[in-house]
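Handout, page 2. Input:
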Amino acid sequence: MQLGMVGLGRMGANMVERLIQGGHQCAAFDRSSDAVKAAAAKGAIGCNSLADLVKSLAPPRAVWVMVPSGDPTRSTIGELGKLLQKGDVVIDGGNSYWKDAQAQATSLAQSGIDFIDAGVSGGIWGLKEGYCLMVGGKADACKRLEPIFFTLAPKDGYLRVGDVGAGHFVKMVHNGIEYGMLQAYGEGFEVLQASEFAAGLEFGKVAHLWNQGSVVRSWLLELAELAFKSDPKLEKIRGWVDDTGEGRWTITDAIDLAVPVPALALSLFMRFRSRQDDSFAAKVIAALRNEFGGHAVKAES
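Output:
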């Protein structure tokens, strides 16, 4: 099957390679000419523009957009809407907000172009392990592209979860859960690191141990084992944690739905805390404790 891929970052480039390995034909475009050349070297049709990419595909076309969410995705899909024809389909595989997906679908529908929102999980390991695909869109449009989805996903790793918006909604909640899991693992290892047993503990071996039949075993612990193997005390990195929006959206939607998500909310707030070298709120608390109870404060170094 033919597919056009727009965006050849860490995931898009690997997805193109996996599809080519699976016998599909891929046309590829990225703002980086080096990324396009690299994809072409793996067997893709290198394209210099969106127009070039569209021309390289036979109708009915399928174009997968794998660029950052927000304006980059909106502008790319908007331009594709002017280039594609009735019967073509656009797949948004980025971490877009589900309401944005619905708006994009409504806009493209005016030209008879189908829209599919595909939540994609798998990161840089997807090339080897496959990608978990949470797909939303019209049933017939999704059915037509199942050869693509089945190649990208591992066994049982693809599911049409509903109409347009459902794919990004399920992926959003997935990432919200991920925030909570990462926070729990991080706090657990910090307790180990602060204990009297820390000197004798090898965190990589602990992560490996917990993956042998324990109730907290997971792929994340496998990755923790790898991280501790290369940097046993994580001395080479800062504890600065970014967020890409999905955690915030999960909490916002939970508020709208009156669903309590205290663990997920706190995990998001702790990411904000990770970016502060010295919390002003903590300074206020220390000052107040000193004022009302004479509790000691520590001076700035």
